[in-house]
Amino acid sequence: MALTKISRMTEADLELVTAAVADAEHHTSGEIVTIVTDLSDHYEDIGIAWASGVAFVALATYATFPNAYIGLINRLTGGWGHEYTTNEYVALLLTAVALKWVGTWLILKWMPLRLWLTPKATKLARVRNHAISLFKVGTESKTVGRTGVLLYLSMLEHRAEIVADEAIASKVAPEVWGDAMVALLDHVKAGNPGQGVAAAVAQMGVVLADHFPKGSENPNELPDRLIQL
Fold first, then answer.
1. Integer Cα distance of 179 and 200 in angstroms
2. Contact, 226 vs 200, CB < 8 A?
3. Transmembrane segments in this chain: where (predicted)?
4. pLDDT digits over 140-181, tens only?
5. Which CATH architecture fits 11-41+120-228?
6. Are 51 and 107 in contact (CB under 8 A)?
């Protein structure tokens, strides 16, 4: 199911983030990469799991209360009673269960509901995993001093991650990025994701400048622009 892009930034947002990255990197040998996307995962397995759970509950209910199930069928067929054979009953049962499964699966094609039914821990893990995958492809080991760091924002999941290269991770504990995350999410919640990314980058620049001050040679090895997926 196609999603309307909500992560598209305005030209002003893009310029704001690019300027924030350039300014932050002016004071550090660290390299900041920013990525924003709508969704880190489509959670198809969550839809399947919920559809299977609903179908199982339906099957257990029909098996536990067969008379009520048969009575419902009779009412739907105009009230004419019929003595069903075992094979007929099983066929009706499986048909009803299959319809429950398909109906639930189709309802959960609506992404907002699927996301709402996805456990928080699952969303956290998948956003983190996607951020790490993007980091490995575009940031990890791409700088001479292994001083790249990725700021990743997933809009629909309302989650963000900061993933740092080896040299940075060895000196900066994850909790040190707390101020950057707060600055980012506060602006995002207010409907200003561009300002949020820029504010987070500024905070990240402070941390990087403290641990990795700019040296005499400091080439710009990674893009300053905001990457939109």
1. 8
2. no
3. 48-69, 89-108
4. 777 778 888 999 999 999 899 999 998 899 999 888 999 899
5. Roll (3.10)
6. no
Domain boundaries, the chain: 11-41+120-228, 44-115
C-beta separation of 155 from 6 below 8 A: yes
Q: Of 31, 4, 17, which is closest to residue 193 (Cα–Cα)? A: 17
Both structure tokens of 109? 């094609």
**What is the distance between the alpha carbons of residues 35 and 114, in angstroms, rounded to a whole number?**
24
* Cα 144 to Cα 116: distance, rounded to the nearest angstrom: 42
Residue 183 · residue 223 · CB < 8 Å: no
State the residue for tokens 């790249």: 148
pLDDT recorded at residue 2: 42
Q: How remote is the C-alpha of 79 from its chain's centroid?
A: 50
Find, among 67, 69, 77, 68, the residue nearest to 97 by Cα: 69
List alpha helices for the chain, DSSP H.
11-25, 44-64, 66-76, 86-107, 111-117, 120-138, 166-169, 178-189, 193-211
Residues 218 and 211: their CA atoms lie apart, in Å, by 15
SS3 at position 178: helix
Buried b (16+ CB within 10 A) or exposed e, 115-145: beebeeeebeebbbebbeebbeeebbebbeb
**Has residue 73 got a pLDDT over 80?**
no
What token pair was written down for 92? 């009706």
Q: 166: number of CA atoms within 13 Å, CB side?
A: 8
Surface-to-core class of residue 109, CB atoms within 10 Å of its CB (0-12 exposed, 13-18 middle, 19+ buried): exposed
